[in-house]
Specification:
CATH class of the largest domain: Alpha Beta
Oligomer: single chain
Number of strands: 4
Radius of gyration: 20 Å
Length: 157
């Protein structure tokens, strides 16, 4: 869906839902000044079009004993294309990896990883990540403090 196909009401709905994902249809309708039936139809349309990609509950890693967050840069071996599928499938199967991006620059991938502590992070890097097919080099940066953490996208208007 192109930005130009959103009207003001769609954008208000999306902005409200990004901040209040658990809102009822009634709360959403009141927030965007629509009847509940009109709101439901629009909401369903945004879901059907894939603009709303899904719903999730964000958990606090520290409350679950995951005290370390790291950003891990992965370089692949030259000619790694033969191992690409095995690597990406392996990454998808690892619960410690929260996000993975293929990037430009000195590294091939950047991962966001959580671990119980530094020892667990080290063990994950050495015993799990480094043994994935095609991995040549891994460099990590441990997060000292989280300044901002949001999934909310900037909306036009």
């Amino acid at each position: 869906m192109q930005d130009s196909s959103f009207d003001r009401t769609d954008l208000r709905m999306l902005a409200f839902l990004q901040l209040h994902g658990r809102a009822s249809n009634l709360e959403l309708a009141e927030a965007v000044n629509l009847s509940t039936s009109q709101c439901h139809r629009r909401h369903r349309r945004l879901e059907d079009l894939g603009v709303i990609a899904g719903y999730e509950t964000r958990l606090d890693p520290a409350h679950l004993g995951l005290g370390v967050t790291a950003f891990v840069h992965v370089s692949m071996e030259k000619g790694h294309l033969s191992n690409l599928r095995k690597f990406t499938d392996g990454i998808r199967a690892l619960p410690e990896v929260l996000e993975c991006f293929s990037v430009t620059g000195d590294f091939d991938y950047v991962l966001k990883v959580v671990a119980r502590d530094l020892k667990a992070l080290s063990q994950f890097l050495m015993d799990t990540l480094m043994v994935l097919p095609g991995v040549d080099n891994v460099r990590s940066s441990v997060c000292l403090d989280q300044i901002k953490n949001t999934g909310a996208l900037p909306l036009p208007g």
